[in-house]
Amino acid sequence: MVIKEFHNLCDDAMKIRQKVFVEEQKFQDEFDEIDQRCITLVGYIDDQPVACSRAFFDEEEKKYKVGRFAVLKDYRKKGLGLEMLKATCQVIKKIGGKEVWLHSQLQAEGFYKKAGFSSVGEIGYEEYCPHIWMVKKI
């Protein structure tokens, strides 16, 4: 997989997020103002976009965060998610982060734990979906 970095939301990431979060998982509030100031990563196989994530510094909370992490359905369970997560953490480290925070869907908590993240706090909801905050030192 080739991973490319963009300095805002690009069309390829938008299409992946639309497919995964809006069409597949039925989220309605997928796109936000963070998209205009984040670093977006897109993973490509044979020039086709198959995975994405975003990295940013949350000024209000003073934390570096990963978000909007998605892999197209046909490409899951192939190690691409872990590859994308490592690349996203490297970007955060490059821009000054010492730890990475993310708001994981509860069903993905095990994936992030295998990647070295720890759950923090109580379960909360984004739209209808249970999420948990997770953190990892980098």
Query: Shape, please?
Result: globular
Structural class: alpha+beta
CATH superfamily: Gcn5-related N-acetyltransferase (GNAT)
**Major sheet size, sense and barrel closure:** 7 strands, mixed
The number of helical elements comes to: 3
**CATH level-3 fold name:** Aminopeptidase
- Uncertain runs are none
Count structural domains. Answer: 1
Helix content: 25-40%
How much is the average pLDDT? 96
Task: State which percent range the strand residues make up.
Answer: 35-45%
CATH architecture title: 3-Layer(aba) Sandwich
Number of strands: 7
- H/E element sequence: EHEEEHEHEE
Instruction: State the end-to-end distance.
Output: 23 Å
Radius of gyration: 14 Å
Q: What does the model show?
A:
This protein has 138 residues and is an alpha+beta fold. It has a single domain, classed as Gcn5-related N-acetyltransferase (GNAT) (Aminopeptidase, 3-Layer(aba) Sandwich), CATH 3.40.630.30. Helix content is 25%, strand content 41%. It contains 3 helices and 7 strands, in the order E-H-E-E-E-H-E-H-E-E. The protein has helices at 11-24, 80-94, 109-114, and strands spanning 2-6, 39-45, 48-58, 63-71, 99-105, 118-126, 129-137. It has a 7-stranded mixed beta sheet. Strand 2 (39-45) and strand 3 (48-58) form a beta hairpin. It starts with a strand and ends with a strand. The mean pLDDT is 96.
Give the gist of this structure.
The chain has helices at 11-24, 80-94, 109-114, and strands at 2-6, 39-45, 48-58, 63-71, 99-105, 118-126, 129-137. It has 138 residues and is an alpha+beta fold.
